[in-house]
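To whoever picks this up:

The parser on our side crashed when reading a file containing two proteins. I've narrowed it down to the boundary between the first structure block and the second sequence. Both blocks are reproduced below exactly, byte for byte. First block:
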Amino acid sequence: VFIVPGSIEYRTKTIDNTLNPEWNEIFEFVVEQYESDSIEFEVYDEDLGKDDFIGRAQLPLNTLVDDDHINTWLTLQDIKNGSLNVSLQYFSLTKQKSALEIIERKNNEVKKGEKLSKALLVCYIDRCLNLPQSKKTRQEPNPFCRVKVEGTETKTQTYESQTNPQFEHISQILCSNPLHEKLKIYVCNAKCKNEVIAYFEMPIKEVYDADTMTIDTQSYPLKSVSGPLDKTEIILHLSLF
């Protein structure tokens, strides 16, 4: 099954030789347009070469009630017989710290013991200042940033020959344990096999502890694995929902 919420696509594992497959898989994603977006489900028969299309179903997101959990059967279209059982839960963004406990309880109702997300970290990278030249080439780097929380990673675009790149990049990362996880940002040089030229780390709990769980735009010193950096900074705005 392919699950398509907006522009993102997820795929389940393949269940062999059955007309009644059971996947028991969970997918989490950020909804951009709650009022207008739908989740599309497409079912295929995996085959050598090209997979055979079986049927599709669609569910408008605005049919979901905040914090509520629904379990429903969707009738597959473009096929004589067939249906798909799905379980869904929607959470709206909030700045209330007490919501973490509520979400954890709701997550356990979906699937107890599953490592599900409790919060959304929004990291806005404005720019970097005074990045060092490459020690190998003695040239200005082609910088980009890798933004990482646990196993989730996003990347900014790459800029050519910049020591003060203006990224203006937003990363949205779902966090399963925000009070014990770290935000890690690696500034890399695409010109030299993506070597890390500087990095930044912060416990996400610092964002949680801030007023309204937001740290307004400010600069932070960048570190280097190869030695101290002179006035090398990254400018960030951080929010937790």
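<<boundary where parser fails>>
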Amino acid sequence: QAKICAILPRRSCFSRKSSSNPTKRQIVAANVDTVFLVSGLDRNFSPRRVERYLVAAAESGAEPVIVLNKTDLCDAVGDAVKAIQVITESVPIHTTSSSEPDGLNQLEVYLRHGRTVAFLGSSGVGKSTIINFLLGSNRQETQSVRQRDQRGRHTTAHRELLVRSKGGVIIDTPGMRELQLWDSDRALESAFDDIDVFSQACRFRDCQHQTEPGCAVRQAVSDGQLTTDRLSHYHQL
């Protein structure tokens, strides 16, 4: 029978607004060193969703790593990688497939003794399949996506901490179809570091990059140094 001996202080915390009560904070995972942001390269691939996860990861204090899974179902993997590189230049990006172990083996470097990683992403992106590979056994149940709309099914219904025999701890989480950010002000500066750099030259320190005169961010858009979509999504978040 398990016994709680102590509660460790939180040094990192991935959270979101509760789907049932937006005024309540829901803790997804805590004390995580690396968070794998998994996205499937099938018809449900969305760079905007990855961008939202990056903001939440920056807020958490954990090191984000982007995993683009299901490369065997995508004919334009290079284009998908470039779409993510537009969003971030500093976060590592790995391409993986359950049929190609080489890509999955690259994730081993993050799973050393004393390190904890968490897998986050929508339902059906292949988190459980990747975890089974890293564990070396079919510990987590897997399901295929629905064919009619390519939406994932909730295979993992609860959060679970898994200890690897080769070292490292894995936290598996249920798929999230929506991610409402809890408190993203500081995290936005990290996830949108390109906009943050341009904003240093704005005339006003509290510039919102909308209609203010002397906005260096909107000038960067006009000069082609920043895309309209990038700034638009920044405002949405």
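After patching the parser it read the second block fine. The domain at 192-236 is CATH 1.10.40.50 (Ribonucleotide Reductase Protein R1; domain 1). Residues 149-154 have pLDDT under 50 and may be disordered.
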